[in-house]
Amino acid sequence: HVQLVESGGGLVQPGGSLRLSCSVSGYTVSSLCMAWLRQYPGKRREVILSIDRAGRTSYSEFVKGRFTISKDNSKYTAYLQMNSLKPEDTALYYCARILGVGYPNWGQGTQVTVS
Protein backbone atom coordinates (compact mmCIF):
# COMPACT_ATOMS: atom_id res chain seq x y z
CA HIS A 1 0.00 0.00 0.00
CA VAL A 2 1.49 3.33 -1.08
CA GLN A 3 1.39 6.23 1.36
CA LEU A 4 2.40 9.76 0.44
CA VAL A 5 3.18 12.67 2.76
CA GLU A 6 3.89 16.16 1.47
CA SER A 7 5.92 18.79 3.28
CA GLY A 8 7.68 22.07 2.59
CA GLY A 9 4.80 24.43 1.94
CA GLY A 10 4.62 27.88 3.42
CA LEU A 11 4.59 31.59 2.77
CA VAL A 12 7.01 33.07 0.26
CA GLN A 13 7.38 36.41 -1.46
CA PRO A 14 6.83 36.79 -5.20
CA GLY A 15 9.95 35.79 -7.06
CA GLY A 16 11.01 33.44 -4.30
CA SER A 17 11.50 29.69 -4.25
CA LEU A 18 10.19 26.71 -2.34
CA ARG A 19 10.89 23.01 -2.52
CA LEU A 20 8.09 20.62 -1.70
CA SER A 21 8.85 17.06 -0.70
CA CYS A 22 6.70 13.98 -1.07
CA SER A 23 7.81 11.11 1.14
CA VAL A 24 6.74 7.72 -0.13
CA SER A 25 6.27 4.54 1.84
CA GLY A 26 5.33 1.14 0.55
CA TYR A 27 7.23 1.42 -2.72
CA THR A 28 10.46 2.86 -4.01
CA VAL A 29 9.90 6.06 -5.97
CA SER A 30 11.83 4.58 -8.88
CA SER A 31 8.99 2.13 -9.42
CA LEU A 32 6.29 4.79 -9.43
CA CYS A 33 4.94 7.29 -11.88
CA MET A 34 4.17 10.39 -9.89
CA ALA A 35 2.58 13.78 -10.29
CA TRP A 36 2.22 17.07 -8.52
CA LEU A 37 -1.18 18.71 -8.65
CA ARG A 38 -2.54 21.91 -7.24
CA GLN A 39 -5.96 23.05 -6.26
CA TYR A 40 -7.38 26.55 -5.99
CA PRO A 41 -10.30 27.14 -3.62
CA GLY A 42 -13.50 25.91 -5.17
CA LYS A 43 -11.72 24.45 -8.19
CA ARG A 44 -10.73 20.98 -9.31
CA ARG A 45 -7.19 19.72 -8.85
CA GLU A 46 -5.01 20.20 -11.90
CA VAL A 47 -1.88 18.32 -12.82
CA ILE A 48 1.11 20.60 -13.13
CA LEU A 49 3.98 18.13 -13.50
CA SER A 50 4.51 14.41 -13.78
CA ILE A 51 7.42 12.01 -13.92
CA ASP A 52 7.45 8.41 -15.10
CA ARG A 53 9.53 5.44 -13.99
CA ALA A 54 12.30 6.32 -16.43
CA GLY A 55 12.49 9.90 -15.17
CA ARG A 56 10.80 11.48 -18.16
CA THR A 57 8.86 14.56 -17.18
CA SER A 58 5.97 16.58 -18.47
CA TYR A 59 4.92 20.06 -17.44
CA SER A 60 1.87 22.26 -17.52
CA GLU A 61 2.33 25.41 -19.58
CA PHE A 62 1.69 27.43 -16.42
CA VAL A 63 4.81 26.16 -14.64
CA LYS A 64 7.18 25.19 -17.43
CA GLY A 65 10.54 26.85 -16.96
CA ARG A 66 9.82 27.64 -13.31
CA PHE A 67 8.95 24.34 -11.61
CA THR A 68 10.87 21.06 -11.69
CA ILE A 69 9.84 17.58 -10.60
CA SER A 70 12.40 15.02 -9.54
CA LYS A 71 12.78 11.80 -7.56
CA ASP A 72 15.48 10.68 -5.15
CA ASN A 73 15.33 6.90 -5.09
CA SER A 74 17.69 6.64 -2.13
CA LYS A 75 15.42 8.81 0.01
CA TYR A 76 12.06 7.45 -1.14
CA THR A 77 11.11 11.01 -1.93
CA ALA A 78 9.84 13.03 -4.83
CA TYR A 79 10.37 16.76 -5.05
CA LEU A 80 8.76 19.82 -6.55
CA GLN A 81 11.22 22.68 -6.92
CA MET A 82 9.36 25.93 -7.46
CA ASN A 83 11.23 29.03 -8.60
CA SER A 84 10.11 32.51 -9.63
CA LEU A 85 6.90 32.07 -7.69
CA LYS A 86 3.92 34.25 -8.52
CA PRO A 87 0.85 35.14 -6.47
CA GLU A 88 -1.20 32.98 -8.82
CA ASP A 89 0.82 29.96 -7.68
CA THR A 90 -0.93 30.24 -4.32
CA ALA A 91 -2.78 26.94 -3.92
CA LEU A 92 -2.93 23.64 -2.10
CA TYR A 93 -0.33 21.30 -3.59
CA TYR A 94 -0.62 17.53 -3.68
CA CYS A 95 1.61 14.71 -4.78
CA ALA A 96 -0.01 11.64 -6.23
CA ARG A 97 0.86 8.27 -7.64
CA ILE A 98 -0.14 7.77 -11.25
CA LEU A 99 -1.47 4.34 -12.18
CA GLY A 100 -2.78 4.02 -15.69
CA VAL A 101 -5.01 7.04 -16.16
CA GLY A 102 -5.88 7.38 -12.49
CA TYR A 103 -4.41 8.68 -9.25
CA PRO A 104 -5.10 6.01 -6.66
CA ASN A 105 -2.88 7.42 -3.93
CA TRP A 106 -2.64 10.99 -2.64
CA GLY A 107 -0.89 12.94 0.04
CA GLN A 108 -2.75 15.22 2.40
CA GLY A 109 -1.67 18.39 0.61
CA THR A 110 0.52 21.29 1.60
CA GLN A 111 -0.39 24.96 1.32
CA VAL A 112 1.77 27.34 -0.69
CA THR A 113 1.07 31.04 -0.35
CA VAL A 114 2.87 33.61 -2.48
CA SER A 115 2.38 37.10 -1.12
How many H/I helical runs?
0
Strand content: over 45%
Average pLDDT confidence is 94
The helix content, as a percent range, equals: under 10%
Q: How would you describe the shape?
A: globular
Largest sheet: 7 strands, mixed
Uncertain regions spanning at least 5 consecutive residues: none
What structural category do the secondary elements indicate? mainly beta
* Rg, nearest Å: 13 Å
Count the strands?
11
User: Termini, distance in Å?
Assistant: 37 Å
List the secondary-structure elements in sequence, H or E: EEEEEEEEEEE
The oligomeric state is: single chain
Structural account:
- This protein has strands at residues 3-7, 10-12, 18-25, 33-39, 46-51, 57-59, 67-72, 77-82, 91-99, 102-106, 110-114.
- By secondary structure, it is mainly β.
- It starts with a strand and ends with a strand.
- 30% of the residues are buried.
Describe the structure using short key phrases.
mainly beta; 115 residues; globular
Topology of helices and strands:
Blueprint: E1 3-7, E2 10-12, E3 18-25, E4 33-39, E5 46-51, E6 57-59, E7 67-72, E8 77-82, E9 91-99, E10 102-106, E11 110-114
Parallel strand pairs: 2-11
Antiparallel strand pairs: 1-3, 3-8, 4-5, 4-9, 5-6, 7-8, 9-10, 9-11
Short précis:
With 115 residues, the chain is mostly beta strands. The protein has no helices and eleven strands. The model has no long low-confidence stretch (mean pLDDT 94).
